[in-house]
Specification:
Shape: globular
Helix content: 25-40%
Distance between the termini: 11 Å
Order of helices and strands: EEEEEHEEHHEHHHEEEHHHHHEHHHEEH
Strand content: 15-25%
Radius of gyration: 21 Å
Mean pLDDT: 93
Length: 397
């Protein structure tokens, strides 16, 4: 049984084709510059690659390019999309409406669209992709939607509520929703597998650290708390996002710079974080390299990033009254050994020790804690696509 997994952006379309009998990726690809010139890069599991510049005015043309790549190109992997059992879509924002994955219906599409104001860069694009799939494939292939926010729906009101007038929660749903839930769910369950224990018996902290980053506390098998809030802007500093900041600092800047709400939002989302502090880049590798070469602002950005990660980890240890395992995942979490070492060096009060030789293993799932460590520490490559495919398979089954 084959599942086609889609992760759509406003001008891009990532995809994977997964054989669920073996849970192996048969092909993956990326459509770029949708709405302008259009281009596709498609890779088969055996190493064959197909690339092409092709007009993609909308997501519909992008899907048509994907169909050609998978069924007719020199890197084809199937004879027809009739071989595909279902399509699974990643959806960033499900609000309080969706507590789990579900099959696509006209009502579901409408609800995802209505939640677009809380994820304006993501949900509208997801809706475009779903409709383009329907236009391309009709209703012969069932479609499912898997929400980044649904894993966090188990948080208690004392955790997800903001201390604002309650009427804004009632009128507009202003509360913490979190993000990266699909990744946090996959990694936390993988930790339990590696520990050989029921996830309900573990207290786990998952550090999903990439250009966008969040940390989640998992207790009793479910999300207990998470760093991102009403939007993915909240939490600790990221590539271009500021993370948590005193709102009065923003109103002060807005008054001084004559900025409206949209301008402030743009500043916090696109010109802050590692980029804003370092002045070098939003790419962690570039910032760390500049710091090593003596750039003081880059060093400050690195120090701030690691300190803020440490604070969230520590706060979740306190909130859960302990921790059994900590996992690092996503681009930075999986590849920055120095960051992991730095964070863990400040967790000795928990009895954390690190095996530095294992910590420097790259591209693999590995337990990096020392044999005498009282807390297990892992590096686990995330696999959101597989999680989406598993949910999709469960729904159509």
């Amino acid at each position: 049984m084959k599942i086609f997994v889609v992760n759509a952006g406003s001008s891009s379309l990532k995809y994977q084709l997964i054989d669920m009998e073996t849970e192996t990726v048969l092909a993956k690809g990326l459509c770029e510059r949708i709405g302008t010139s259009g281009a596709i890069t498609h890779k088969a599991a055996d190493g064959r690659v197909y690339t092409a510049d092709t007009p993609m005015p909308t997501h519909t043309e992008a899907f048509e390019a994907v169909v050609y790549a998978m069924t007719e190109s020199p890197a084809k992997v199937i004879d027809s999309f009739d071989e595909i059992s279902a399509i699974g879509h990643r959806i960033v924002q499900g609000g309080a409406v969706f507590s789990g994955s579900c099959l696509v219906t006209p009502k579901v599409i409408e609800q995802i669209e209505e939640l677009g104001a809380m994820a304006p860069l993501h949900n509208p694009a997801h809706v475009l992709a779903i409709r383009a799939c329907i236009k391309t494939f009709g209703e012969k292939i069932p479609q499912a939607v898997v929400f980044d926010t649904s894993f966090h729906q188990t948080m208690e009101p004392k955790v997800y509520m903001y201390a604002l007038p309650y009427e804004y929660y009632e009128k507009y749903g202003i509360r913490k929703y979190g993000a990266h839930g699909t990744s946090h769910r996959f990694v936390s369950h993988r930790v339990a597998d590696l520990e050989g224990k029921d996830i309900k018996d573990l207290k786990i902290i998952v550090c999903h650290i990439g250009n966008g980053a969040s940390i989640t506390a998992v207790k009793d098998g479910v999300c207990f708390d998470t760093s991102m809030g009403f939007t993915p802007l909240d939490g600790f500093m990221m590539g271009t996002r500021s993370g948590t900041i005193d709102p009065s600092a923003l109103t002060y800047i807005a008054e001084k710079e004559s900025m409206n709400a949209a301008a402030v939002n743009e500043m916090c989302n696109h010109r802050s974080g590692m980029l804003g502090i370092s002045g070098v880049s939003n790419d962690n590798r570039d910032v760390c390299k500049a710091a090593d070469e003596g750039n003081e602002r880059a060093k400050l950005a690195v120090d701030m990033q690691r300190y803020q990660i440490l604070k969230f980890v520590g706060s979740y240890v306190a909130a859960m009254n302990g921790v059994d395992a900590i996992a690092f995942t996503a681009g930075i979490g999986e590849n920055d050994a120095d960051l992991r070492s730095n964070v863990c060096a400040n967790l000795t009060y928990l009895g954390v020790t690190i095996d530095e030789e294992k910590n420097h293993i790259r591209g693999e799932e590995v337990k990096i804690s020392g044999s005498d460590s009282k807390v297990s520490v892992y590096v686990i490559p995330t696999n959101e696509e597989l999680a989406i495919a598993r949910d999709t398979l469960a729904l159509i089954s």
